[in-house]
Amino acid sequence: MANNDLSRPHVFTQGTSSRTILALHGTGGDERNILGLAQALDSTASILSPRGTHLEGGMNRFFERYADGTFNEQSIEAAVDDLAEFITMAANEYDVDAGNIFATGFSNGANTASALMIRRPEMLAGAALFGSTIPFAHVDRVDLTGTRVWLANGDNDSYAPVDVSEWWVDQLRGCGADVTWLRHPGGHEIWPDHAHLIANELRA
After folding, report:
1. Is 194 an annotated catalytic residue?
2. Full-model pTM
3. CA-CA distance, 67 to 138, in Å (whole number)?
4. In 3D, which of 61, 34, 204 has the Cα closest to residue 129?
5. Structural Rg of the chain based on CA atoms
6. Which distant-in-sequence residues (6+ apart) come within 8 Å of 51 by Cβ?
7. Domain edges within the chain
8. Quick one: which of 25, 38, 75, 192 is 20 to 30 A from 152 by CA?
9. Residue 135 class from Cβ within 10 Å (0-12 exposed, 13-18 middle, 19+ buried)?
10. What are the tens digits of pLDDT across the range 78-116?
11. Is 157 an annotated catalytic residue?
């Protein structure tokens, strides 16, 4: 299966505005898994939703993790390179505004969006990250001035502990991003109120 051309399994839906939402599913999902979330965030946007091409126990992911749950950063780098090439080709094929791509994702997909934002900051205008943690042990400083980021995590999410989220927010702000940290009392899940709040702020 090709990872970096338009034969990669994906969904594209044409919207009525210039924004395109890049929708990245979590572990075990596929290209249709979070279309509803993307639509809820902006019903006027086009949606580009690729499938993660790494398999873990038969489940789709965007990059590999080790048996202890830590991330294989070489796999993340490869996933970012493939995804960036796919986005470039898709933007050309579907005639979308490459300067107005907004990412959203859950868990592994959100971590992949974060990695893309750090490694290819020119590709994303912003991101809404649900159930997400920092993708790299060390974050190189990049210029994220003008990039709007929402981090929406549960206070009882062992996958994304509060102290790690706090450090991640500080790192993003240190790169110049405009970050809103949204917290809810639950665990590893998408909190509907947060999706509604982000949608309202995107419309503003």
Report:
1. no
2. 0.96
3. 21
4. 34
5. 15
6. 8, 9, 10, 25, 30, 31, 60
7. 10-203
8. 75
9. buried
10. 999 999 999 999 999 999 999 999 999 999 999 999 999
11. yes
